[in-house]
Write a structure and sequence with these properties.
311 residues; alpha/beta; 3 domains; 4 helices; Pectin_lyas_fold; zinc ion binding; Znf_MYND
């Protein structure tokens, strides 16, 4: 489900086929010295290779084929200023305890070495399409005369060749959406973000600076049945594929900001979602939603998608 993941030590990853994992094909982080060679990494649902905050080791990526990902072939963690300060503070404290003067402490950040012998093709950037996904071919993203899947009657293809090629990806979600057009959420069964303090929630819940308009706009009215857009996020590298895991749902204003369990929404986000803004391992999908019963119920529509927001 997670491909190959290493957190510390010296590791060689060589001669493998790594494919169809729910997150990244290969994840290397913290103090991992890695030699990644002659692997075929393809069709993983977040991206090819992710290198986290690897601040005291060296990683070589050589002679691999990295292809057919919705996200990037290689994602390296960009350290924010506050993270750099934290790491340096930790390093200073450690060195002072060892008797080294503070002015002699340095912080070493090691980017991976990517050779020109890697074959990298047909990888994305982890961004949502600007077109309603129900109005394009699910496989090649072309427009025109489209044929609907005969089972779910929602996903469309430009022809039988694309449908056949896409079936392994579509079959999991096809059964889920075949008989449903919406998911009903009882608000009393949800939790607020303020009530969650675990590390998994924190990783998913960070607002990236690239999100434009977050926290702005008019909050949805619980007394109204008018539709509005919500973002649903799921997934974390620390867990296996878990439909019973808590997922995050919020609107642009973040006045509606809840956590809930919904296997249907979880499946849709993990199967159809794109990378969260920080490109760790969370995935997101935007849905139409509306309140019912004076705000006691929130209905999420899964048979249509809104235009792609910037938040």
């Amino acid at each position: 489900m997670r491909g190959i993941s290493a957190d510390g030590g010296v590791i060689t990853i060589q001669g493998n086929k790594i494919f169809e994992n729910w997150f990244w094909g290969i994840t290397l982080k913290t103090r991992t010295t890695g030699n990644v060679q002659n692997n075929e990494v393809f069709s993983n649902k977040c991206g090819g290779i992710r290198v986290g905050t690897n601040y005291s080791a060296r990683i070589l990526i050589d002679s691999n084929t990295i292809r057919d990902h919705p996200g990037p072939a290689l994602h390296t963690e960009v350290l924010r200023p506050e993270t750099k300060r934290l790491l340096k503070d930790m390093s200073i404290q450690s060195k002072i305890q060892e008797g080294m003067p503070q002015d002699k402490v340095t912080l070493y950040i090691s980017p991976p070495m990517l050779t020109d012998r890697n074959i990298i093709r047909k990888n994305g950037v982890g961004k949502l399409l600007k077109t309603n996904p129900l109005e394009i071919c699910a496989n090649c993203h072309s427009k025109g005369d489209l044929l609907k899947c005969t089972k779910c009657r929602k996903t469309q293809y430009c022809g039988k060749a694309c449908q056949k090629q896409h079936w392994n990806k579509h079959k999991r979600i096809c059964k889920i959406i075949s008989g449903e057009s919406s998911v009903v959420i009882k608000m009393k069964e949800t939790k607020t973000s303020a009530g969650l303090t675990d590390a998994t929630s924190f990783c998913i819940r960070i607002f990236d600076p690239s999100l434009k308009g977050i926290g702005e706009g008019i909050p949805p009215d619980p007394d109204s049945t008018q539709k509005f857009v919500v973002k649903v996020q799921a997934g974390n590298e620390a867990r296996l594929y878990d439909p019973e895991a808590m997922i995050s749902l919020y609107d642009q204003t973040v006045q509606l900001d809840i956590w809930l369990v919904s296997p249907t929404l979880y499946h849709i986000v993990m199967e159809c979602g794109t990378l969260g803004a920080n490109q760790f391992t969370s995935k997101k999908v935007y849905f139409w939603a509306n309140y019912e019963k004076k705000g006691e119920v929130l209905r999420i529509h899964i048979d249509d998608f809104p235009p792609t927001p910037t938040w």
